[in-house]
Design a protein that fits this description.
Elements lengths: L11 H7 L4 H19 L5 E6 L6 H18 L3 E5 L28 H19 L3 E4 L13 E6 L7 H7 L6 E4 L6 H12 L2 E5 L2 E5 L6 E4 L2 E2 L5 E2 L4 H12 L9 E4 L12 H14 L1 H6 E7 L25 H14 L1
Parallel strand pairs: 1-2, 1-12, 3-4, 4-5, 5-8, 8-11, 11-12
Antiparallel strand pairs: 6-7, 9-10
Length: 343
């Protein structure tokens, strides 16, 4: 086998014993979990806004960003439920480049996965304790999910992972809502199959255990656009796209809690973060026009940070993305209030 095994990592239970979540954190997690589930079940008509940096590159600026959301959330709490993004794993199309805080707690230093595990757990716990927000992360590696499963508020399965059996079955054992993105091809059937798998119960191997999952009734769709055969990006947030998703859910009456989160960046915006407010406005307009769309759209996913745009690793600009370009704070704050005014 052409691989070097560098060190054996502590198992999740050991890491949780070293860095336990306090009763205060656990209580806040439970409170927010219950509130979010009511939104996805339709008992609460607020919308979800999953918002934050493309990647959580450094603790100080990420916590700074999230703290800025506190007064905003208070002003819009009757209409919007904010879930900050703390994305600590980053999928890479070719496998190269910065793979997130899990791999490199310091983007300027070499990978250290044990330090990364500690760093992401501490960051998620600090976010809950210091800001009151439970946050979202992408489940890039099903094996690493258990290190932070007790403190996460939302989980996303990415476009490149959604066809993978282990991701689908692991999602079926997660207690919080899990969003299954459409694949990069844009094929809705792949996404719907992933949702069906995640809502079902399964027996499978997980971290060396024979596991039995009970199903996740809050597994749902995320529309993020797609890539054509020529590599060009195409959106799937328009009126016809969401009606098509409504039809797909109608064809699967066994699925519980039909829902979609619209990812406003990635292929939907052509990775132009400044298009995100416009995309949200279009979807909200369609929600007013069509009751089926209004019922199924539960919220939006936005890539936002302190500064507009992005930079290379080591660029030196505090609060500016080192992966995909993001919407800066001033535009973000204005956008959130504009969304609330339209609801």
């Amino acid at each position: 086998m052409n691989v070097e095994f560098e060190k054996k990592l502590a198992i999740p239970m050991e890491v949780k014993e070293m860095y336990p979540a306090s009763m205060e954190i656990t209580g806040k997690v439970q409170e927010r979990d219950a509130a979010l589930k009511k939104i996805f079940s339709g008992e609460d008509d607020r919308i979800v806004l999953i918002i934050g940096p493309c990647s959580a590159d450094r603790e100080d600026s990420v916590l700074d960003y999230i703290s800025r959301l506190i007064p905003v959330q208070e002003k819009v709490k009757d209409k919007i439920f904010i879930i900050p993004r703390i994305y600590t794993n980053k999928p890479r199309t070719t496998g190269g480049g910065y793979k997130g805080m899990l791999h490199q707690p310091d983007p300027n230093e070499k990978p250290d996965l044990f330090k990364g595990i500690i760093a992401i757990r501490e960051l998620h716990m600090k976010a809950v304790k210091e800001t009151g927000f439970t946050c979202a992360d992408e489940m890039l590696y099903p094996e690493s999910y258990k290190y932070i499963d007790d403190i996460l508020g939302y989980v996303a399965v990415g476009a490149r992972s959604v066809e993978d059996q282990q991701h689908r079955l692991t999602a079926s054992g997660i207690e919080v809502p899990v969003g299954m993105k459409n694949p990069t091809s844009g094929d809705y059937s792949v996404m719907m199959n992933a949702i069906k798998a995640a809502q079902g119960d399964h027996h499978f191997i997980y971290r060396g255990w024979a596991a039995h999952s009970l199903g996740n009734p809050y597994a749902h769709a995320i529309l993020r656009g797609y890539t054509g055969p020529d590599g060009k990006s195409f959106p799937n947030y328009h009126y016809e796209d969401i009606v098509k998703l409504c039809d797909a859910y109608d064809a699967h009456p066994d699925l519980l809690n039909p829902a979609v989160i619209v990812d406003t960046n990635h292929a939907n915006s052509g990775k132009n973060p400044f298009e995100q407010p416009r995309i949200i406005n279009e979807v909200l307009t369609n929600c007013r026009y069509n009751d089926r769309i209004r019922k199924i759209v539960k919220g939006f996913m936005v890539e936002s940070y302190i500064e507009d745009g992005n930079q290379s690793i080591g660029g030196g600009c505090y609060g500016k993305s080192i992966t995909d370009a993001c919407l800066g704070w001033e535009k973000t704050e204005r956008m959130i209030y504009e969304i609330a005014d339209r609801l």
